[in-house]
User: Fold this.
Amino acid sequence: MSDGAIERVLSEPASRNEVPGVVAAAVRPDGEIYEGAFGRRDISKPEAMTTDTVFWIASMTKAMVSTAAMQLVEQGKVTLDQDLGTILPALAKPQVLEGWDESGAPRLRPARAAVTLRRLLTHTAGFSYELWNPDIVRYLEHAGLPGITSCENRALTTPLIADPGTRWEYGINIDFVGKMVEALSGKRLDAYLAEHLFAPLGMSETTFRIRPDQRPRLAAMHARAADDTLTPIAFEIPQEPEFHMGGGGLYGTAGDYLAFCRMILGGGELGGARVLRPETVALMMQNHMGPLNVTKLATSAPAATNDAEFFPGMVKKWGLGFMISTEGVPGRRAAHSLTWAGLANTYFWIDPASRVAGVILTQILPFADAKVLGLYDAFETEVYRVARPTRAA
Assistant:
């Protein structure tokens, strides 16, 4: 379906080189509301952006790996609240970073609670990312460890920065969920997801390893400078990783991601293929962090991310795989919508009340790019104008 107002919203920033290119799409459970592509895959080359362009979707991976974990919960192979140290030895004796001694060495102590699947899925297990925690930056330097996008197992040997269950801290949690999926299924994460999620949902373009037929359709990564100019940069997730990064390693297309979103809107089913029970999907949409709240992400790596906070002033919660907006946004998503994003400025939302989901994809660093966020807001507003959703009382 085409719509002139949506196309203007998306095409004008690309024509002004405010973004190199963009793909955006929105759906209802029964099909498409809109899909379009504008600009170029690489701002320095003439090839046009197309709707089948392949993007690094980064942390949009998390919702899919969380879904895989919930399949195993359904099968009785793991519970939300058991100590995962019995499954993953790396989680058996977690240590908390309390600070630094006079010599500059880290001060560690045993954690006062267990790492559980519920805590990993809600980012309340105590793990952090170096992108938003200067103590983890310092720890990586002290220990000589690589960052998480290296996909080296050593990158997962950082301590907790808070006791499990005591605060929301965005971090490497879903990488451990991916490791758990592998341990319980006996399959590598790529193989498990391909068999139990991607194939049933027809997501043929979603992969950790970029196929030869996808490379010509791969969007280039771009860096935004302080003067707002964009420059293509070399960037790729390791194609022969030590571990598949469950927190952010996938590449895919807008169409594939919307198939996943439609499955969530459909209560775990799409096109006759059921990957989750309706009651499991309903459980995933609920707050599982209790009185804790999602907080602002303050950057410790300005080249990779700006400070980031969605809907400032609104209380945000986390379900089993998604951030939950506790209030509606006038003219846009309803209360209790699900959402998250990827580091290279890729974003999605799922609105169960309005029965609408959308995705917008670019390839720009740093994260939380002001121009892309403005484009995201404008696109969502136009989608709801077109969709005119009828919400339950």
User: Anything to note?
Assistant: The mean pLDDT is 96. Residues 73-182 form one domain. Residues 370-387 form the longest helix (18 residues). The two ends are 29 Å apart (CA to CA).
